[in-house]
Amino acid sequence: MKKLTGPFRQIITMDHLERKGPITDSMINIIENGGVIVENGTIREVDDFEKLHRKYKVPVEEITGPSVLTPGFVDAHTHICYAGTRANDYAQKIQGITYQEILAMGGGIYSTVEKTRQSDFDTLKNETFNRVDRHFNSGITTMEIKSGYGLSLPDEIKMLDVINSINETSTPDLVSTCLAAHVKPMEFNDNETYLDFIRSDILPLIRERDLSRRVDIFIEENAFQPKESQKFLVKAQALGFEITVHADQFSRGGALVAATVGATSADHLESSQDKDIRALVNNNVTAVVLPGASLGLAMDFAPARKILDAGACLAIASDWNPGSAPMGDLLLQSALLSNFEKLTFAETMAGITFRAASVLGMDDRGILRQGKLADMISFPTDDHREILYNQGMLKPDMIWKNGNLFTKKSQ
Ligand code: NIG
Ligand code: FE
Question: Do 62 and 4 meet the contact criterion of CB atoms below 8 Å apart?
Answer without folding.
Answer: no
